Amino acid sequence: MRLLLLLAGLLPLTAWASDGDGYVRIPPGDFTSTLAYEDARGPVRIAPFGIMRHPVTNAEFLAFVNTHPAWRRDRVAPVFAGPDYLAHWQGPTRLVPGDQAAQPVTRVSWFAAAAYCEAQRARLPRWLEWEYVAAADTVRHDARADPAWRDRILAWYARPSSSALPAAGAGVPNAYGVRDLHGVVWEWTDDYSALLVSADNRDQGDPDRSRFCGAGALSVADREQYAVLMRVAMLSSLGGSDTTMSLGFRCVRGLP
Amino acid sequence: MKIVMAMVLATVAGALSMPAGATVAPLPRDSVYQSTAQLTDAQAHRFAWSDQRGRAQLVSMFYTACRFVCPMIVDGAKSIQQSLTEEERTRLGVTLISLDPKRDTPQVLARMQKERDLDRARWTLATPDPQDVRAIAGLLGIRYRELADGEFNHTTVLVLLDANGRMIARTEKVGGQPDPSFLAAVRRALVPLR
Fold first, then answer.
1. Which of A148, B2, B87, B150 is most buried (CB neighbours < 10 A)?
2. What was the ipTM of the complex prediction?
3. Which backbone phi and psi does B145 adopt, to 5 degrees?
Protein backbone atom coordinates (compact mmCIF):
# COMPACT_ATOMS: atom_id res chain seq x y z
CA MET A 1 0.00 0.00 0.00
CA ARG A 2 2.72 2.38 0.95
CA LEU A 3 4.60 1.42 -2.20
CA LEU A 4 1.55 2.15 -4.34
CA LEU A 5 1.17 5.55 -2.77
CA LEU A 6 4.80 6.24 -3.36
CA LEU A 7 4.43 5.27 -7.01
CA ALA A 8 1.36 7.44 -7.39
CA GLY A 9 3.34 10.27 -5.91
CA LEU A 10 6.08 9.76 -8.45
CA LEU A 11 3.83 9.85 -11.50
CA PRO A 12 3.20 13.57 -11.57
CA LEU A 13 6.90 14.14 -11.08
CA THR A 14 7.66 12.15 -14.20
CA ALA A 15 5.08 14.16 -16.08
CA TRP A 16 6.81 17.34 -14.97
CA ALA A 17 10.13 16.33 -16.39
CA SER A 18 9.24 16.50 -20.08
CA ASP A 19 6.31 16.21 -22.42
CA GLY A 20 7.97 14.49 -25.33
CA ASP A 21 7.77 17.27 -27.93
CA GLY A 22 10.93 19.17 -27.18
CA TYR A 23 9.44 21.29 -24.40
CA VAL A 24 10.25 20.90 -20.72
CA ARG A 25 7.63 21.79 -18.14
CA ILE A 26 8.77 24.43 -15.69
CA PRO A 27 6.92 24.46 -12.35
CA PRO A 28 5.63 27.73 -10.87
CA GLY A 29 7.65 29.51 -8.23
CA ASP A 30 8.51 32.77 -6.54
CA PHE A 31 11.57 34.36 -8.05
CA THR A 32 13.58 37.46 -7.29
CA SER A 33 15.16 38.82 -10.43
CA THR A 34 18.70 40.09 -10.41
CA LEU A 35 17.25 43.18 -12.06
CA ALA A 36 15.80 45.61 -9.57
CA TYR A 37 13.14 48.05 -10.65
CA GLU A 38 12.01 50.91 -8.49
CA ASP A 39 8.42 49.82 -8.87
CA ALA A 40 8.88 46.10 -8.32
CA ARG A 41 11.18 44.86 -5.62
CA GLY A 42 11.05 41.43 -4.05
CA PRO A 43 9.89 38.12 -5.45
CA VAL A 44 7.54 37.74 -8.41
CA ARG A 45 5.24 34.76 -8.92
CA ILE A 46 6.20 32.87 -12.08
CA ALA A 47 3.35 30.91 -13.65
CA PRO A 48 4.16 27.43 -14.98
CA PHE A 49 5.21 27.18 -18.62
CA GLY A 50 6.90 24.87 -21.09
CA ILE A 51 10.28 25.81 -22.55
CA MET A 52 12.24 24.24 -25.41
CA ARG A 53 14.85 21.82 -24.14
CA HIS A 54 17.50 23.40 -26.37
CA PRO A 55 17.79 26.46 -28.60
CA VAL A 56 16.23 26.27 -32.08
CA THR A 57 18.68 24.76 -34.58
CA ASN A 58 19.52 25.83 -38.12
CA ALA A 59 17.75 22.72 -39.45
CA GLU A 60 14.61 23.55 -37.48
CA PHE A 61 14.69 27.15 -38.63
CA LEU A 62 15.21 26.05 -42.24
CA ALA A 63 12.07 23.90 -42.01
CA PHE A 64 10.18 27.02 -40.88
CA VAL A 65 11.64 29.15 -43.69
CA ASN A 66 10.60 26.48 -46.21
CA THR A 67 7.00 26.61 -45.04
CA HIS A 68 7.01 30.40 -44.49
CA PRO A 69 8.96 31.72 -47.50
CA ALA A 70 8.32 35.34 -46.51
CA TRP A 71 11.10 34.69 -43.96
CA ARG A 72 13.70 33.62 -46.55
CA ARG A 73 16.73 35.88 -46.32
CA ASP A 74 16.23 36.94 -49.97
CA ARG A 75 12.56 37.82 -49.43
CA VAL A 76 12.22 39.18 -45.92
CA ALA A 77 11.42 42.89 -45.65
CA PRO A 78 14.41 44.72 -44.16
CA VAL A 79 12.20 46.29 -41.49
CA PHE A 80 11.90 42.78 -40.03
CA ALA A 81 15.46 41.51 -40.47
CA GLY A 82 18.75 43.29 -41.10
CA PRO A 83 21.22 42.56 -43.93
CA ASP A 84 23.06 39.79 -42.03
CA TYR A 85 19.92 37.77 -41.39
CA LEU A 86 20.84 34.08 -41.93
CA ALA A 87 23.95 35.25 -43.75
CA HIS A 88 25.87 32.18 -42.53
CA TRP A 89 23.69 29.80 -44.57
CA GLN A 90 24.93 28.61 -47.93
CA GLY A 91 21.79 29.85 -49.67
CA PRO A 92 18.33 31.18 -48.85
CA THR A 93 17.07 27.61 -48.29
CA ARG A 94 20.35 25.75 -47.99
CA LEU A 95 22.60 25.13 -45.01
CA VAL A 96 26.34 24.69 -45.08
CA PRO A 97 26.75 20.88 -45.20
CA GLY A 98 28.07 19.28 -42.04
CA ASP A 99 27.70 20.56 -38.49
CA GLN A 100 25.51 23.58 -39.22
CA ALA A 101 22.17 21.72 -39.21
CA ALA A 102 22.49 20.75 -35.55
CA GLN A 103 23.98 24.03 -34.35
CA PRO A 104 21.75 26.66 -32.76
CA VAL A 105 20.45 29.11 -35.36
CA THR A 106 21.92 32.60 -34.97
CA ARG A 107 21.70 35.79 -37.03
CA VAL A 108 17.94 35.82 -36.53
CA SER A 109 16.04 39.01 -35.74
CA TRP A 110 13.50 39.33 -32.96
CA PHE A 111 10.73 39.54 -35.58
CA ALA A 112 11.89 36.28 -37.20
CA ALA A 113 12.27 34.50 -33.86
CA ALA A 114 8.82 35.67 -32.76
CA ALA A 115 7.32 34.48 -36.08
CA TYR A 116 8.96 31.07 -35.65
CA CYS A 117 7.49 30.66 -32.18
CA GLU A 118 4.09 31.85 -33.32
CA ALA A 119 4.12 29.19 -36.04
CA GLN A 120 4.73 26.67 -33.21
CA ARG A 121 1.76 28.10 -31.31
CA ALA A 122 4.33 29.29 -28.83
CA ARG A 123 6.03 32.59 -28.05
CA LEU A 124 9.40 33.91 -27.01
CA PRO A 125 10.10 33.71 -23.28
CA ARG A 126 9.76 36.81 -21.20
CA TRP A 127 13.01 37.93 -19.57
CA LEU A 128 11.82 36.80 -16.13
CA GLU A 129 10.95 33.34 -17.41
CA TRP A 130 14.32 32.98 -19.07
CA GLU A 131 16.17 34.22 -15.99
CA TYR A 132 14.12 31.89 -13.75
CA VAL A 133 15.13 28.79 -15.71
CA ALA A 134 18.68 30.01 -16.30
CA ALA A 135 19.25 30.47 -12.54
CA ALA A 136 19.52 26.68 -12.17
CA ASP A 137 22.67 24.61 -12.19
CA THR A 138 22.63 20.85 -12.67
CA VAL A 139 21.12 20.12 -9.25
CA ARG A 140 19.59 23.32 -7.83
CA HIS A 141 16.79 25.45 -9.22
CA ASP A 142 18.53 28.57 -7.98
CA ALA A 143 22.30 28.39 -7.90
CA ARG A 144 22.88 32.11 -8.24
CA ALA A 145 24.46 32.52 -4.84
CA ASP A 146 27.19 29.98 -5.61
CA PRO A 147 30.42 31.71 -6.69
CA ALA A 148 31.67 28.57 -8.48
CA TRP A 149 28.56 28.54 -10.70
CA ARG A 150 29.04 32.21 -11.54
CA ASP A 151 32.66 31.60 -12.44
CA ARG A 152 31.76 28.77 -14.83
CA ILE A 153 29.33 31.02 -16.67
CA LEU A 154 31.77 33.88 -16.82
CA ALA A 155 34.42 31.56 -18.22
CA TRP A 156 32.14 31.07 -21.22
CA TYR A 157 31.81 34.80 -21.79
CA ALA A 158 35.59 35.03 -21.77
CA ARG A 159 35.90 32.46 -24.57
CA PRO A 160 36.57 33.85 -28.06
CA SER A 161 33.38 33.99 -30.11
CA SER A 162 35.20 32.77 -33.22
CA SER A 163 35.22 29.14 -32.08
CA ALA A 164 32.62 26.93 -33.80
CA LEU A 165 29.29 26.47 -32.04
CA PRO A 166 28.57 23.08 -30.51
CA ALA A 167 25.41 21.18 -31.50
CA ALA A 168 22.28 22.42 -29.73
CA GLY A 169 21.43 20.14 -26.83
CA ALA A 170 25.00 18.90 -26.32
CA GLY A 171 25.30 20.72 -23.00
CA VAL A 172 24.56 19.21 -19.60
CA PRO A 173 20.89 19.57 -18.63
CA ASN A 174 20.16 21.85 -15.71
CA ALA A 175 17.98 20.88 -12.75
CA TYR A 176 14.85 21.37 -14.89
CA GLY A 177 16.24 19.31 -17.76
CA VAL A 178 16.87 22.38 -19.96
CA ARG A 179 20.15 22.64 -21.87
CA ASP A 180 22.42 25.33 -23.24
CA LEU A 181 21.01 28.35 -21.43
CA HIS A 182 24.62 29.27 -20.76
CA GLY A 183 27.68 28.48 -22.77
CA VAL A 184 26.43 28.35 -26.36
CA VAL A 185 24.49 31.35 -27.65
CA TRP A 186 22.68 34.40 -26.31
CA GLU A 187 18.92 34.27 -26.64
CA TRP A 188 16.16 36.72 -27.58
CA THR A 189 13.41 37.41 -25.10
CA ASP A 190 9.95 38.59 -26.04
CA ASP A 191 10.37 41.72 -23.95
CA TYR A 192 13.96 42.51 -24.95
CA SER A 193 12.83 46.10 -25.49
CA ALA A 194 11.54 46.35 -21.92
CA LEU A 195 15.10 46.37 -20.64
CA LEU A 196 15.55 50.09 -20.20
CA VAL A 197 19.08 50.83 -19.17
CA SER A 198 19.53 54.31 -17.87
CA ALA A 199 23.04 54.62 -19.34
CA ASP A 200 21.24 55.38 -22.61
CA ASN A 201 20.05 58.57 -21.00
CA ARG A 202 23.35 60.12 -20.12
CA ASP A 203 22.79 63.07 -22.45
CA GLN A 204 19.38 63.84 -21.05
CA GLY A 205 18.93 66.07 -18.04
CA ASP A 206 16.45 63.94 -16.19
CA PRO A 207 15.97 60.51 -17.72
CA ASP A 208 12.79 59.66 -15.90
CA ARG A 209 11.05 62.77 -17.05
CA SER A 210 12.33 63.10 -20.58
CA ARG A 211 13.30 59.96 -22.42
CA PHE A 212 11.08 57.54 -20.59
CA CYS A 213 7.61 58.18 -19.38
CA GLY A 214 7.26 57.52 -15.67
CA ALA A 215 9.83 56.35 -13.17
CA GLY A 216 11.97 53.31 -12.97
CA ALA A 217 14.91 52.55 -15.20
CA LEU A 218 16.44 49.37 -13.92
CA SER A 219 19.32 48.89 -11.58
CA VAL A 220 20.95 45.66 -10.51
CA ALA A 221 20.24 44.24 -7.10
CA ASP A 222 23.26 41.96 -7.00
CA ARG A 223 26.35 43.42 -8.58
CA GLU A 224 28.04 40.03 -8.60
CA GLN A 225 25.71 38.85 -11.34
CA TYR A 226 27.92 39.92 -14.23
CA ALA A 227 26.56 37.26 -16.54
CA VAL A 228 23.03 38.60 -16.21
CA LEU A 229 24.32 42.13 -16.61
CA MET A 230 26.02 41.22 -19.87
CA ARG A 231 22.82 39.67 -21.23
CA VAL A 232 20.89 42.78 -20.29
CA ALA A 233 23.49 45.09 -21.75
CA MET A 234 23.33 43.22 -25.04
CA LEU A 235 19.55 42.89 -25.29
CA SER A 236 19.02 46.50 -24.29
CA SER A 237 21.27 47.62 -27.14
CA LEU A 238 19.39 45.77 -29.87
CA GLY A 239 16.56 46.72 -32.17
CA GLY A 240 13.98 44.21 -33.38
CA SER A 241 15.51 43.77 -36.83
CA ASP A 242 19.07 43.35 -35.56
CA THR A 243 20.91 40.06 -35.85
CA THR A 244 24.23 38.92 -34.41
CA MET A 245 26.37 35.85 -34.98
CA SER A 246 25.93 34.68 -31.39
CA LEU A 247 22.26 35.47 -30.77
CA GLY A 248 19.65 32.74 -31.16
CA PHE A 249 16.42 31.88 -29.36
CA ARG A 250 14.09 29.25 -27.99
CA CYS A 251 10.31 29.32 -27.53
CA VAL A 252 8.02 28.84 -24.56
CA ARG A 253 4.34 28.14 -24.25
CA GLY A 254 1.79 28.50 -21.53
CA LEU A 255 0.50 25.38 -19.87
CA PRO A 256 -3.19 24.53 -19.89
CA MET B 1 -11.45 43.52 -89.31
CA LYS B 2 -10.56 47.14 -88.84
CA ILE B 3 -13.35 47.45 -86.32
CA VAL B 4 -12.11 44.44 -84.44
CA MET B 5 -8.61 45.90 -84.41
CA ALA B 6 -9.93 49.20 -83.12
CA MET B 7 -11.83 47.42 -80.41
CA VAL B 8 -8.76 45.46 -79.43
CA LEU B 9 -6.76 48.66 -79.32
CA ALA B 10 -9.40 50.37 -77.25
CA THR B 11 -9.43 47.45 -74.85
CA VAL B 12 -5.65 47.48 -74.58
CA ALA B 13 -5.63 51.22 -74.06
CA GLY B 14 -8.30 50.85 -71.39
CA ALA B 15 -6.42 48.06 -69.71
CA LEU B 16 -3.26 50.12 -69.72
CA SER B 17 -4.79 53.31 -68.43
CA MET B 18 -6.97 51.72 -65.76
CA PRO B 19 -4.22 50.25 -63.62
CA ALA B 20 -2.25 53.48 -63.73
CA GLY B 21 -5.10 55.17 -61.89
CA ALA B 22 -6.40 52.24 -59.85
CA THR B 23 -3.47 50.19 -58.66
CA VAL B 24 -0.86 51.30 -56.20
CA ALA B 25 2.87 50.95 -56.46
CA PRO B 26 4.23 48.08 -54.37
CA LEU B 27 4.93 48.94 -50.78
CA PRO B 28 8.62 49.74 -50.22
CA ARG B 29 10.38 46.90 -48.45
CA ASP B 30 11.67 49.27 -45.77
CA SER B 31 8.16 50.48 -44.90
CA VAL B 32 6.73 49.87 -41.42
CA TYR B 33 3.44 49.22 -43.25
CA GLN B 34 4.89 45.79 -44.08
CA SER B 35 3.35 45.07 -40.70
CA THR B 36 -0.07 43.37 -40.80
CA ALA B 37 -1.09 44.90 -37.46
CA GLN B 38 -4.66 46.15 -37.05
CA LEU B 39 -5.59 49.20 -34.99
CA THR B 40 -8.82 50.40 -33.43
CA ASP B 41 -9.37 54.15 -33.27
CA ALA B 42 -11.38 56.46 -31.01
CA GLN B 43 -14.46 55.94 -33.20
CA ALA B 44 -14.12 52.14 -32.72
CA HIS B 45 -13.19 51.86 -36.38
CA ARG B 46 -10.86 48.93 -36.98
CA PHE B 47 -8.28 49.40 -39.73
CA ALA B 48 -4.96 48.06 -40.94
CA TRP B 49 -2.00 50.20 -39.87
CA SER B 50 -0.95 50.10 -43.53
CA ASP B 51 -4.19 51.90 -44.45
CA GLN B 52 -2.40 55.05 -43.32
CA ARG B 53 -0.30 54.87 -46.44
CA GLY B 54 -0.79 57.93 -48.63
CA ARG B 55 -0.08 60.71 -46.15
CA ALA B 56 3.04 61.50 -44.14
CA GLN B 57 2.54 60.82 -40.45
CA LEU B 58 4.04 61.95 -37.19
CA VAL B 59 3.85 58.83 -35.04
CA SER B 60 4.45 58.08 -31.39
CA MET B 61 3.34 55.62 -28.77
CA PHE B 62 1.62 56.68 -25.56
CA TYR B 63 -1.02 55.65 -23.02
CA THR B 64 -3.88 57.78 -21.84
CA ALA B 65 -3.25 57.28 -18.11
CA CYS B 66 0.22 58.83 -18.49
CA ARG B 67 0.68 61.93 -16.40
CA PHE B 68 4.04 63.38 -17.34
CA VAL B 69 5.59 62.65 -20.68
CA CYS B 70 2.65 61.65 -22.86
CA PRO B 71 0.97 65.06 -22.59
CA MET B 72 4.35 66.36 -23.73
CA ILE B 73 4.18 64.14 -26.84
CA VAL B 74 0.83 65.69 -27.77
CA ASP B 75 2.23 69.18 -27.14
CA GLY B 76 5.32 68.32 -29.18
CA ALA B 77 3.25 67.19 -32.16
CA LYS B 78 1.05 70.29 -31.85
CA SER B 79 4.05 72.58 -31.86
CA ILE B 80 5.31 70.90 -35.04
CA GLN B 81 1.89 71.45 -36.63
CA GLN B 82 1.88 75.10 -35.54
CA SER B 83 5.26 75.64 -37.17
CA LEU B 84 3.85 74.59 -40.56
CA THR B 85 1.85 76.51 -43.14
CA GLU B 86 -1.86 75.68 -43.38
CA GLU B 87 -1.22 73.86 -46.66
CA GLU B 88 1.58 71.80 -45.13
CA ARG B 89 -0.60 70.94 -42.15
CA THR B 90 -3.23 69.31 -44.34
CA ARG B 91 -0.60 66.96 -45.75
CA LEU B 92 0.55 65.69 -42.35
CA GLY B 93 -1.30 63.25 -40.10
CA VAL B 94 -0.51 62.62 -36.44
CA THR B 95 -0.97 59.08 -35.16
CA LEU B 96 -0.63 58.17 -31.50
CA ILE B 97 -0.61 54.42 -30.87
CA SER B 98 -1.44 53.11 -27.41
CA LEU B 99 0.89 50.89 -25.38
CA ASP B 100 -2.01 49.97 -23.13
CA PRO B 101 -4.70 47.91 -24.94
CA LYS B 102 -6.16 46.81 -21.59
CA ARG B 103 -7.28 50.32 -20.68
CA ASP B 104 -7.25 52.38 -23.86
CA THR B 105 -10.64 51.49 -25.27
CA PRO B 106 -12.21 53.63 -28.02
CA GLN B 107 -14.23 55.47 -25.34
CA VAL B 108 -11.08 56.35 -23.42
CA LEU B 109 -9.32 57.45 -26.61
CA ALA B 110 -12.33 59.54 -27.61
CA ARG B 111 -12.32 61.29 -24.26
CA MET B 112 -8.65 62.20 -24.65
CA GLN B 113 -9.21 63.34 -28.23
CA LYS B 114 -11.94 65.68 -27.03
CA GLU B 115 -10.10 66.91 -23.93
CA ARG B 116 -6.93 67.66 -25.84
CA ASP B 117 -8.89 69.15 -28.76
CA LEU B 118 -7.33 66.88 -31.38
CA ASP B 119 -8.95 67.46 -34.78
CA ARG B 120 -10.15 64.12 -36.18
CA ALA B 121 -9.16 65.11 -39.71
CA ARG B 122 -5.51 65.18 -38.68
CA TRP B 123 -5.16 63.18 -35.49
CA THR B 124 -5.60 59.45 -35.09
CA LEU B 125 -5.57 57.89 -31.63
CA ALA B 126 -5.54 54.13 -31.93
CA THR B 127 -4.96 50.93 -29.96
CA PRO B 128 -3.35 47.78 -31.38
CA ASP B 129 -4.27 44.22 -30.47
CA PRO B 130 -2.33 43.23 -27.32
CA GLN B 131 -0.03 40.77 -29.11
CA ASP B 132 1.05 43.40 -31.66
CA VAL B 133 2.14 46.17 -29.29
CA ARG B 134 5.77 45.10 -28.96
CA ALA B 135 6.17 44.48 -32.70
CA ILE B 136 4.82 47.94 -33.57
CA ALA B 137 7.11 49.45 -30.93
CA GLY B 138 10.00 47.48 -32.41
CA LEU B 139 9.32 48.84 -35.89
CA LEU B 140 9.28 52.37 -34.50
CA GLY B 141 12.37 51.84 -32.33
CA ILE B 142 10.39 52.40 -29.14
CA ARG B 143 11.28 50.58 -25.91
CA TYR B 144 8.80 50.21 -23.07
CA ARG B 145 8.01 48.35 -19.89
CA GLU B 146 4.77 48.09 -17.96
CA LEU B 147 5.30 49.01 -14.33
CA ALA B 148 3.79 47.26 -11.34
CA ASP B 149 1.25 50.08 -10.87
CA GLY B 150 0.00 49.93 -14.48
CA GLU B 151 2.02 52.91 -15.69
CA PHE B 152 4.52 52.45 -18.49
CA ASN B 153 8.13 53.39 -18.95
CA HIS B 154 8.68 54.19 -22.59
CA THR B 155 10.86 55.97 -25.08
CA THR B 156 9.57 59.47 -25.69
CA VAL B 157 9.96 60.05 -29.38
CA LEU B 158 8.33 61.55 -32.43
CA VAL B 159 8.85 59.47 -35.57
CA LEU B 160 8.29 60.87 -39.05
CA LEU B 161 6.95 58.39 -41.60
CA ASP B 162 6.73 59.39 -45.24
CA ALA B 163 3.56 58.63 -47.22
CA ASN B 164 4.86 55.10 -47.83
CA GLY B 165 5.61 54.38 -44.20
CA ARG B 166 9.36 54.78 -44.39
CA MET B 167 10.91 56.15 -41.24
CA ILE B 168 12.73 59.26 -42.39
CA ALA B 169 13.40 61.14 -39.16
CA ARG B 170 12.98 60.82 -35.41
CA THR B 171 13.54 63.06 -32.43
CA GLU B 172 13.62 62.46 -28.70
CA LYS B 173 13.58 66.21 -28.08
CA VAL B 174 9.85 66.34 -27.71
CA GLY B 175 9.08 69.06 -25.20
CA GLY B 176 9.29 72.82 -25.73
CA GLN B 177 10.21 74.27 -29.12
CA PRO B 178 10.34 71.85 -32.09
CA ASP B 179 13.70 70.20 -32.72
CA PRO B 180 14.95 72.30 -35.70
CA SER B 181 16.47 69.47 -37.73
CA PHE B 182 13.38 67.32 -37.20
CA LEU B 183 11.09 70.18 -38.23
CA ALA B 184 13.19 70.65 -41.37
CA ALA B 185 12.76 66.95 -42.18
CA VAL B 186 8.98 67.28 -41.74
CA ARG B 187 8.89 70.25 -44.13
CA ARG B 188 10.94 68.37 -46.72
CA ALA B 189 8.58 65.40 -46.47
CA LEU B 190 5.57 67.63 -47.12
CA VAL B 191 6.79 69.11 -50.40
CA PRO B 192 4.14 67.95 -52.92
CA LEU B 193 5.35 65.45 -55.51
CA ARG B 194 5.25 66.77 -59.05
1. B150
2. 0.82
3. -145, 135
